Amino acid sequence: MKRTICNSLADKLYSRGFGDRDGKCIELSWVELAYLSEKKILDYDFENVVKEASKEVSNFDILFIVYRDLRERGYVLKDKGEYFMGRKNYLMAFYPLSDLDYFDVNEFIGKQYPLILSIVDFDGEVTYYLVDMVEPKGTYFKNPQEKLNFEIYGKRAFVFSNLQDFENLTYGRNEGSWGHLSLLEIKYLAEKGVVEKSLQVGEIYEIYKDLRERGLIVKSGFKYGTHFRVYENSMEEHSKYLVHMISEKEEIQKISRAVRVAHGVRKTLLLAHNLNGKIVYFSISWIRP
Predict the structure, then answer these.
(1) pTM for the full model?
(2) Residue 146 φ/ψ, nearest 5 degrees
(3) Which residue, 44, 163, 202, 233, could crosslink 174 as a Cys pair with Cβ 3.0–4.6 Å?
(4) Domain at 142-200: CATH code
């Protein structure tokens, strides 16, 4: 099927952002050809174009639905194969995915940020998420100075002295005559020399430690459905981040739920991943393009 258009029609289409220029002609991508066929701008049978395109382009259905949606929103797009460069009020890269796909850290680690994930759902509607790679930082580097004596009972460490000091320094929970800390806090304080016994804890500890080393106050994010809620400077202010550890390939559905919660409580969602010993963070938020 011919995707090369020449002469005056080529000039007209190119001026509207379609095709790649080749002398007096332009070369259309499959999504462009399908869109122009659907709109009756080109005299091709739309169904036949879709059939042919699907043979040539993997994920064509998702690419076309996103392309069409963005064009209807007024974007001028350039087809880059696996993504689109789009311009309206700003220039941005749009990466189409299905809601059955995964956010693959290794695939996205080398992208140019920020970018927009463009997710086609079960109903065929498109939801957009603004994604950026960030380096979260805070100003809180205080740690307890006195040694802490504790006993572990199950999954908590119980303490019976220096309670107010530790709670003031953002560790643990003071219950009056006694207090308790998480095992993540105990392991971190052991590395700081505040407690004598270290522990073996899960992979989530590396993210907890990294956040603390960045000067951030780290508390539980369980009531928000995430691993941590994080404060930049003080617990007197509202927490800025919700931080959730993700695997190498994370389900888009899970990310969507986390984004919705963070948006509802006016916090920034950070997806954290341990990439060969380095913790990387992706901020992700809902956007209306």
Answers:
(1) 0.89
(2) -85, 150
(3) 163
(4) 3.40.1170.20
